[in-house]
Design a protein that fits this description.
This protein is an all-alpha fold. The protein has one domain: Na+/H+ antiporter like fold (Up-down Bundle), CATH 1.20.1530. Helix content is 80%, strand content 0%. It is built from 15 helices and no strands. Helix 4 runs antiparallel to helix 12 and helix 7 packs antiparallel against helix 8.
């Protein structure tokens, strides 16, 4: 793709995403929903005037990294400590229930088979795809509602991070059944090492950044160093520890969240995210699907896949939240906040395709789940918070 086509695509994505985002806001819906719909409009489903490529995929990845870095900056460390145990239990519920339901769903469509067959492996991998949680869209919705730094927002963020770790372990275990060379123990050790190093080095990095912040308060070099840290940890997490890059970016934000200029860093990051990287990321969700190619069989499976995917997280996390003492409204918020799927589900599905565990036709179901969950989650969250406001 030449430079002129890249510029054309970026112009179309940004103007359409912002236009539909503003329209969504006027209709009292979150802007992210409009940006995703814009991607559907300009993508292969309707107008087909923009197609995804490596450049746009890279831009979208930067967008989600910046968004997660910003979420880390806005995380209240004290609340994170308080919700740590609860978040872990929530994440376990959010992984186990979708895994079981997804496996049973495939078997209901294509027959029950013994654990050693390829059919069972396909069923298990379908369930594995459903374990993934992509909280970036929930983060944006909570930011718009001003609820990201609340107890519920922090709990969702914490549970999503832990969910990501558990999901990696599950993915590795399932791939291990297909490939005997996959080492589940090694992955667990590397993941633990990453978080231990993040804790130890994070304290050192914070002390260094704190000195820089006192020496050059409220200057642009501080956000630049912060963004550099986010990219470094995103790279290191994925490259050397097998942890998703967005987790590394979120950890970077947490490390810097107690700086005096953390809000200043966040504002500077928000400018980049709002103007270009955010619209590209959210529009890319709509660009990555083509609803024209869906036949009746895969459509039926896809609909069931979406329903199970949404309910699996709501039930798995919502019921656990209720058991942990949250009221019905907050439990529903947590369940809904955890039901979004995004780049993590795509990565899991691609690993399954590469390992020849699942067929490419199931990718449509994953894309539909990503789109529908991404659109519905912010809308439902806004409705729940609006209902609570009326009752107050």
């Amino acid at each position: 793709m030449d430079t002129l086509e890249i510029l054309r695509n970026l112009a179309i994505i940004i103007i359409s995403a912002k236009a539909f985002g503003l329209l969504a806001r006027k209709l009292k819906a979150p802007q992210v929903a409009g940006e995703i719909i814009a991607g559907l409009l300009i993508g292969p489903t309707l107008l087909n005037i923009v197609s995804t490529d490596d450049f746009l995929a890279g831009m979208a990845e930067i967008g989600v990294i910046l968004l997660m870095f910003s979420a880390g900056l806005e995380t209240d460390i004290d609340n994170l400590k308080k919700s740590g145990v609860k978040a872990t239990i929530l994440a376990c519920g959010g992984v186990s229930i979708p895994l079981i339901l997804g496996t049973l769903l495939y078997m209901c469509f294509y027959g029950f088979q013994s654990p050693k067959t390829s059919g069972f492996m396909q069923a298990l991998f379908i369930g594995t795809i459903l374990t993934a949680t992509s909280v970036s869209i929930t983060v944006q919705a909570l930011k718009e509602l001003g609820k990201l730094s609340t107890d519920i927002g922090t709990t969702i963020m914490s549970a999503a991070i832990i969910d990501d770790v558990i999901g990696i372990v599950v993915l590795t275990a399932v791939l291990g059944l297909k490939d005997p060379n996959a080492n589940l123990g090694a992955v667990c050790i590397k993941t633990v090492i990453f978080f231990v190093l993040s804790l130890v080095l994070g304290i050192l990095i914070f002390k260094i950044m704190e000195k820089f912040d006192k020496r050059w308060p409220h200057t642009r070099r501080i956000p630049i160093m912060g963004m550099t840290l986010a990219f470094i940890l995103a790279y290191v997490a994925d490259k050397y520890f097998g942890v998703a890059d967005i987790t590394g970016a979120y950890v970077a934000g947490i490390i810097l969240s107690s700086l005096d200029d953390s809000e200043y860093i966040d504002r500077k990051m928000d400018i980049n995210s709002y103007m270009i990287f955010g619209p590209v990321f959210f529009a890319s969700v709509g660009l990555q699907t083509n609803l024209k190619s869906v036949d009746f069989t895969i459509l039926a499976f896809s609909i069931a896949f979406v329903v199970v995917g949404l309910l699996g997280k709501v039930v798995g996390c919502g019921l656990v939240a209720k058991v942990l003492g949250y009221n019905s409204s907050d439990s529903l918020k947590i369940g809904v906040g955890m039901m979004t799927r995004g780049e993590v589900a795509l990565i899991v599905a691609q690993r399954g395709l590469k390992a020849e565990i699942i067929d490419s036709r199931y990718f449509t179901a994953v894309i539909l789940l990503i789109i529908i969950s991404s659109v519905l989650t912010p809308i439902i969250l806004k409705a729940i918070y609006a209902s609570d406001a009326k009752k107050a």
